[in-house]
Amino acid sequence: MSASRPSSVRRALAAAAICAAGLSITTGVGPASADPAVSAADAATIAQTLSGATPSAASGADVLTLLSEANAALRKLGIQPFLNPSVAFNCVAPTASNPLGIAPAAGGAIAGPWAAPGIALPKIPFVDIDPNVVKDGQTLYGFVPAGVTSDPTATGMQVAWFNANTGKYGLAGMGKAGQTLTDQWLANIPAGPVKTGATMVLGNLVNALAPAGSRLAPVDTGKGTVLSAVFGTVNNGARSCFFLPMVGITNA
User: Per-residue pLDDT tens for 213-250?
Assistant: First the structure.
């Protein structure tokens, strides 16, 4: 979405949104719909986990290993991780080395044009697939949580963005990674048996590419320096996992 407010007002509102996102990284304060605010002890664990230090309450080895896996999955998509990762509490079953049930996650972005790297799209009769999911002047946002095994919902993750060169800003929802790829690839195919068949053919490909809980969002940010924050909720089975904002800068 974009607004018709004067440029100075738009910049102020967008900057405030990004600052609020950054503030929530250090304070644990999230949107009103998020899980209850974390305790002081949990906030300390967040800071230690994000800095790479070992949390005092338990060994951080498992969490750091999971975070490495999330970053690897994001880079596999060709997406550059943001300045900071994120964590969600009580998102996975607690263990001796992870008593708070922390699930780490990585978010990032890449300017278009972008096509899924290393992916050879199958030839489908009567279907002309454009491999460029994101076009020039767009930005692709990605999010990969680690430890999520069951992902029953497709909503909850969002991107707040602000183009410092144009003054445009917006808030965009992120969809399931596999579904987003399929929808973009088949955007020009009318609904019907051909599109249904093509969706089934592409299903196994995108499911192997996109881990459970991963999200993508192609956004018309325009060209320029884009400040962004990715945050929100992913469900891991019956667990609701609120991920604190991940903030980054992309040259679109």
Answer: 999 999 999 999 999 999 999 999 999 999 999 999 99
In a domain, 182, yes or no: yes
- At 165, list the tokens: 């060169």
CA gap 21, 230 in Å, rounded:
9
Structural domain total, the chain:
1
The two most distant CA atoms of the chain are separated, in Å, by 59
Q: Are 182 and 210 in contact (CB under 8 A)?
A: no
Model's pTM, two decimal places?
0.72
What whole-number distance in Å separates Cα of residue 214 and Cα of residue 146? 9
Side chain identity at residue 214, one-letter code: S
**Residue 179 and residue 106 in contact, taking contact as beta carbons nearer than 8 Å:** no
Please check whether residue 174 lies inside any domain of the structure. yes
1 within a domain of the structure (yes/no): no
State the Cα–Cα distance between residues 247 and 234, nearest whole angstrom. 18
CB 38 within 8 A of CB 29: no
Give the domain extent around 200. Answer: 7-251
